[in-house]
């Protein structure tokens, strides 16, 4: 699924939140649901000046944001367990949602955005580890050629390469479960 507009992305997250709340037996109140659509600048936003006050009487801002972020995080985890393409869908929706100023974006960032940022950092670290490994193996090969100790150098280089590959695979398995 691709998202062309922030409105489509907002609806995707709104549906995920409401669906997870229903599955957990604690459906959102009408005001909690309306607040998912709130924005100061988006034309499709709810134009209800009393909405924030009504919701504040029901639940604090902090508790509301924690509740919605928790629902999103659990929905994301469930989707990842069910569908291998879910990460791409959620990342695309989050990228498009950030183009607008929806309040729900704060909760999406808290629940999912930090995870996608951590995944990007891991990809950079993976590339650095592979470059360092290549340099070490190249250095070992140079040493072996120069000093004629091919056996020792080859074993050392293979150990370094195997360890780096093993750590990389471990990280991939951990990232895949997120």
What fraction of residues sit in β-strands?
A: under 5%
- SSE order: HHHHHHH
Using only C-alpha atoms, the radius of gyration works out to 24 Å
The poorly predicted ranges are 173-178
Number of distinct beta strands: 0
Shape: elongated
How many domains make up the coordinates? Answer: 2
**Assembly type of the shown chains?**
single chain
- Mean pLDDT across the residues is 80
Walk me through what this model shows.
α4 crosses α6 (104-147). The chain has helices at residues 6-23, 30-35, 51-58, 61-82, 86-97, 104-147, 150-177. The protein starts with 5 loop residues before the first helix and ends with a helix. Helix content is 78%, strand content 0%. The chain is elongated and about 80 Å long. With 178 residues, the protein is mostly helical. The protein has two domains: 6-115, no CATH class; 119-177. The longest helix has 44 residues, at 104-147. Mean pLDDT is 80; it is low at 173-178. The chain is built from seven helices and no strands.
């Amino acid at each position: 699924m691709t998202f062309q507009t922030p409105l489509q992305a907002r609806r995707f997250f709104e549906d995920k939140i409401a669906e997870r709340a229903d599955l957990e037996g604690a459906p959102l109140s009408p005001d909690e649901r309306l607040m998912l659509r709130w924005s100061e600048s988006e034309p499709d936003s709810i134009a209800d000046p009393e909405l924030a006050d009504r919701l504040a009487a029901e639940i604090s801002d902090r508790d509301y944001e924690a509740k919605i972020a928790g629902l999103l995080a659990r929905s994301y985890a469930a989707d990842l367990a069910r569908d291998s393409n879910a990460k791409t869908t959620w990342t695309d929706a989050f990228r498009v949602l950030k183009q607008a100023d929806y309040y729900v974006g704060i909760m999406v960032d808290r629940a999912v955005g930090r995870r996608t940022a951590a995944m990007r950092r891991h990809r950079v670290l993976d590339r650095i580890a592979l470059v360092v490994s290549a340099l070490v193996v190249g250095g070992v090969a140079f040493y072996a050629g120069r000093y004629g100790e091919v056996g020792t150098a080859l074993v050392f280089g293979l150990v370094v390469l195997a360890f780096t590959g093993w750590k990389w695979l471990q990280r991939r398995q951990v990232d895949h479960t997120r």
